[in-house]
Amino acid sequence: MLKLQEEENPPNVAVKGKSDKPGGMFASFHKPAWLLLAVSCATFMQGAITDGFVNTSVTSIERRFALSSTHSGIIVSLYFFTGVFVNLGVAYVGGRGHKGRWLSAGMVLYGVGAFTYCLPHFLSGYYHDSQRGYGDDGDGYSSICKLEPSNVTELTTSEDQIPDSTAGVNEVSNYLYFFIVAQIAFGLGSAPIYTLGIVYLDENVSVPKSGFYLGILYTSATLGPAVGYIMGGVLLRFYTDFRKADIIMMTPDDPGWVGAWWFGMLLASPVAIGAALFLSIFPKELPGTEEIRRAKVSVAHQRGGEDILSTRSDFGEKPEDFFLAMKLLFRNPTMMFLNLVFCTEGIIIVGFAAFLPKLVETLFGQTSSFSATLVGVTVICGGCSGNFIGGWLVKRYRWDVRSNLYFCICACFCSMALMTGILLRCPHESRVSTLDLEDSIDCLSGCSCTSVDHTPVCSDDGMYEFFSPCHAGCTHDFKNNTYGDCICFPEETVFLKGRCEAQWCPQLYFFTFGLFLTIMFAFLPFIPALHASLRCVPESQRSLSLGLSNVICKIFGSFPAPILFGAIFDSTCSVWQTDAQGNRNGSCWLYDADKLSWRMLVLIELLKMASSLGVMMAVYLYVPVNLQTEEDEGEGEEGSAIPLKTV
To answer: Which of 452, 458, 612, 634 has a CA positioned 20 to 30 A from the CA of residue 313?
Structure first.
């Protein structure tokens, strides 16, 4: 273990940055290593809650509380909207205050928000799947084939056969507002984490060590969403009402299943409060920070305002200083082009976070749970490795701004080459669905099948999968999740409830390994790029520059990413869900894997090309305050930094 060796101070000389009570109970924690642990806990919990538990719970709360996709979209987007409106203010005001207290307040909001998010589960009654009241009892529509005359089109039926369940769906549940309040709390709480938290850590360590510390910090930030995603997926396999788990007749494969979406939030709430208490014990500056600050040499861009800021000790105390500070940041071409890079990379990361499991499911015919687990494990291994190695390289070779950016260019080109692995996929599966059997309509013409109840069934030989027992032509329900007497198949054929088991293909091995390398190289240049963006602005402007970067990335990266990736999926849909008149009304049932992989590759390659061009422009336009500074920075830091010792 490595820790910073504290310099000895004269016994009666106060050191700026010391705790108000020297020798107090928390004085032993006032070291960079402990601060790194505290801020890492904050980034881990932020990622686990908002990028893990929230994302995995969306489908469940839609079913549980009769919310439409529009409502769930509002819930998710409120987190980003709130961050856009408060990020700059928090970065500007908090950057001149006690950053640790701001971070602590943010985690308190996360704890309160997590508890609010799971409250609807305890305030509402037991879950009842509204569709399960319709079966082979003559009341409502039937999930099996009832031979009677009917003018039926493919996967549709007349309107009078469809039960009127719109009353519960169209009414906005009052529980929606609990989720809205929780997401607003998350948005407010996240504002100081990736602005003040990064600067708080960076200003308390020397430049050579900063990259390594930031690498560890972002490794925990990557680990959080992955752990939240995997843990959320596991919890969804447990029924939402624990006390009724033994008596329900559903399984996790049932379309009406609702898992324990709330349990992860319930566990996360006290952990977030604990992280807030941990952050509150740190002073405004750690012991030795003043010496580190004096040893640092500015390598900010010439037009970054270093000359103005160095002559005004009161800068930031007047309201008009905010607009001057923003003007100086926009005049910094290196920082602005790096923001462009963060936007394009953010589109890829956010889009993949939302749709990569669905991509694996589509290309390789795997189940949703397996795809989510595979992606989660791959993100943990690839993302954490990339962040850690990137931070270690910055520390090991003490790269200056230009060296960091040159490395980013190389990593971008490697990532572009690895992205071609998205073209790998399994060959078309041998099992056939009713969507592919054009000649099945003749034998099903008298069944009056509907598309309301999605109850997939698979033949006992695993070769045929259908939308429902009715679409398989089954006229008898054995009441044990099996169906028989299917008019389109031999008499002995039996269909089992649930989807057919996915077939394993060797291409998935190569795809998984390529995905690991792709994610690793996607995260590898992030710490060098972040390190360069922190160094190309004056130290007093770093909190505000990160706040501006977050706002730009959320507006031009996080917001359009899900829409853009969703449009790519929709453009490759082969068969849409339809209403009684045959009009498109709902989600896509079947995607064209060939078109999907190629269009996804083109989109990602264009974004990667934009990233490479942005880094090149950042290098080309970078001019430090003193051209000689970059050459002398390593020697200056090496001679004045606090030495490391091995414990």
So the answer is: 634
Tokens of 57: 């719970």
Helix extents (H) in 311-425: 320-330, 333-364, 368-397, 401-418
Q: What is the DSSP letter of 26?
A: T
CA distance 597 to 123: 44
Cα 281 to Cα 317, 383, 489, distances in angstroms: 27, 30, 71
- b/e code 225-263 from CB counts within 10 Å (16+ = b): bbbbbbbbbbbbeebbbeeeeeebeeeeebeebbbbbbb
End-to-end CA distance of the chain: 6
| Measured CA angle at 558 (ends 556, 559), to 5 deg | 70
Q: How many Cα atoms are found within 13 Å in the side-chain-facing hemisphere of 492? A: 1
The encoded tokens of residue 177 equal: 């507002």
pTM above the 0.85 mark? no
Which residues does 358 contact at the CB level (< 8 Å), separation at least 6? 371, 569
Instruction: Give all strands (DSSP E) within 516-583, no chain letters.
Output: 573-578
| Residue whose entry in the numeric block shows the structure tokens 């800021």 | 309
Instruction: State the number of CA atoms in the 13 A half-sphere of 381 facing the CB.
Output: 13
The CA-atom distances, in angstroms, between 57 and each of 112, 229, 250, 380 are 18, 10, 18, 20
Query: Which residues of 490-643 form beta strands (DSSP E)?
Result: 495-497, 573-578, 584-591
| AA identity, residue 166 | T
What tens digit of pLDDT does each residue of 526-576 get? 889 988 988 888 877 888 888 888 889 888 887 788 778 878 888 888 766
H or E segment at 358? Answer: helix 333-364
For residue 366, list its beta bridge partners.
none
Cα Rg of the chain, angstroms: 28
